[in-house]
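Hello Y.,

Per our agreement to keep a running log of every chain we model this quarter, I'm adding this entry. I've kept the format consistent with earlier entries: sequence first, then predicted structure.
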Amino acid sequence: MPADERNAADRMDDLTSLGLKLELRRLLTEAARARTTRRYAELAEAVGVPPPHSIHKTTMLLEELMREDHAAGRPLLAALAVSKLGDTPAPGFFHLLAELGRYAGPDRGPEAQAAHRAELAAAWDWWGRGDR
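Predicted structure for the entry above:
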């Protein structure tokens, strides 16, 4: 499939994106209350992100949540979404943390793990309260 057709197939309209993002926020808030994490693929399926490239689309929605939470001064709910390769998010999470001024280290390794643990603990504490 040519790149322009693939890009069109990857795009979601604004209304669909908003609905998926709201459902993603709801599922991650439930995970915060349970003090757990969720894998990207599980989230994509549970939220109903359409193929193709549903995991990529899910990470784009998570980045939107990160920007919203950061702008509102809230802990990052997206910290609860992790890669299938471990208990930390994919490198894009750390790149966006750096862009937001929340982290200035590598996207893998002990420093990244420590930054994720801090973001995760803050998200569990804030989003896990019953009034969210």
